[in-house]
Amino acid sequence: MRIAVVDDLAQDRAGLLGYLRRFYSSDAMIFEYDSGEAFLRDYRPGDFSRVFLDCCMGGVSGMDAANAIRAAGDGCSIVFTTTSRDFAVDGYRVRAAGYLVKPYAYEELSALLLMDAPRERPFVELPMGGAGVKLLLSHILWCQAQGHYVLVHTAGDGEMTVRISFTELSALLLPYPQFLVCCRGCLVNLDQVKSFSGSDFILHDGASVPIRQRESEAAVRAYADYQFRKARGEL
User: Fold this and answer.
1) 101 plus 127 within the same structural domain
2) Is 191 found in the same domain as 174?
3) What's the CATH code of the domain at 96?
4) For 42-61, how does the pLDDT look when each residue is reduced to its tens digit (9 = 90+)?
5) Domain range for residue 23?
6) 111-126: per-residue pLDDT in tens?
């Protein structure tokens, strides 16, 4: 497990790091950042299972960093450390796992961690050049059939041409609720969808993924239902 601690106060960072090492022993890799800017310079979607963000940092605030994480389609667990709960509404919008109000005790942190045990980041193994390549589901943006191949659009690694049928790829991905076949030969990761028009899903990176015209209402309903279930913590 990889954890990020982002706080501009060295004393507060040191206290949280001590608690985390006590809780996880040697089972976690913990990275500390003294500003939101420093964190975002290093950050890549899928890097961390959990991110602790101080709400009230100068410059890039914890909420700014959380919005950037969610805009990247990253579903990692976000925990805010703060001196008040005034940010609760904004925290709901970024699906925060919880708040730790400073100063907090080890027992408060451990209770939150036990309630919010993150799921392992699943991946699929795809055939590439005679060998398999492991690809995090969170890095898959959308997929497009091209004859006997599938073009997989990814976050960070660009486009990957995979020798697999669209039917076979669909069998691998559709058991996960974030994936949806939205058009003939096209499959989209709903975590990567920013908005939709009448004929396309618009992704966070600006790409447009076509929606099957005669089933556009059903596709949009599926997207709305998925987001609703995520907001309720059902996924």
Assistant:
1) no
2) yes
3) 3.40.50.2300
4) 998 888 889 999 988 989 99
5) 2-115
6) 888 777 645 457 788 8
